[in-house]
């Protein structure tokens, strides 16, 4: 079975970021930025041909490719107001030749470029920071932040351990049945388990980086709002994707959608048609990133048809549009806010239980989503022992 994560192409990633950082630091012109992006495309073709990437690393590669397309092709980093932190400038567009970056030293531009590549995805602290993050964390004391985040990190580790133990007993994972063929109860618990695993795996590095950055006074507690939203964000599919799920690709996805709507189709910036184009493009590109990410691992284990990520993400605008129409009806009803939240949460759960198999079943059936850890602290506490690999707890005959 192919590994879900692979460090083999580390040299490729080093070249990738070198080709991305160099034109940003040197303030290269548009023509030179295109040449660097062409080099990245050739590097992408090479690494895909070699087929050494796991599912996670391959998906990360194409997510970074989307980011490079934004910074090297679509945006002019010297003039784009959004690509600078508010405290660094006056909020206006800088004139060519006398721009903000021209006034910085090489070291300052290098630090800015690193900051741009690794922290600008969600927009926290940048000029385009989403409204729901302003501010989500007040200026709490450093010690309070570190204690809270450490406790949250321990909770996330326990959640990951519990979800991993559940994988060993759920035939969706341990018998590779997939979500569709395992029955509705296992399908429901399998969907919840996948969500817990995904949130845990994404949250752990975010929490560790936040603890380190604040602990060493590199950044402030307010620069590290929670990666995921609150329970209130589970009342609609739109709220889930806009505020509930992580926003690592928010900038890159919306930038491509705005470029298509405003520069290619010449639509008014704040029109309804522009919003529809931006949303549809964002989900299409997100699906494409995941589809391309799983292509090599699935091909390597002999799964010919490919994954279903593109279809899964392409269906999300349909759900958003449908619930928008339905909400117009509920506005005229006398349902209490509590009932509306309950119905909304049930709708979101039903939607993902119904559609998640489109994306996950190819990975589940080929073993890409097999349990990765075979010991469990949770099962030890419950008295069933540490070892999960030889406990034969898979509930499948």
Automatic annotation (TrEMBL):
Entry's localization field: Membrane
Molecular function as annotated in GO: O-acyltransferase activity
UniProt keywords, alphabetically: Membrane, Transferase, Transmembrane, Transmembrane helix
Secretion signal, residue range per the UniProt entry: none
Family annotation (InterPro entries): Wax_synthase, Wax_synthase_dom
Keyword Ion transport in annotation: no
GO biological process, one term: lipid metabolic process
UniProt xrefs under Pfam families: MBOAT_2
GO cellular component labels: membrane
Keyword Transferase among record annotations: yes
Annotated TM spans: 12-29, 146-163, 194-216, 272-290, 310-330, 342-359
Topology relative to the membrane: Multi-pass membrane protein
Protein family according to the UniProt entry: Belongs to the wax synthase family.
Protein name: BTB domain-containing protein
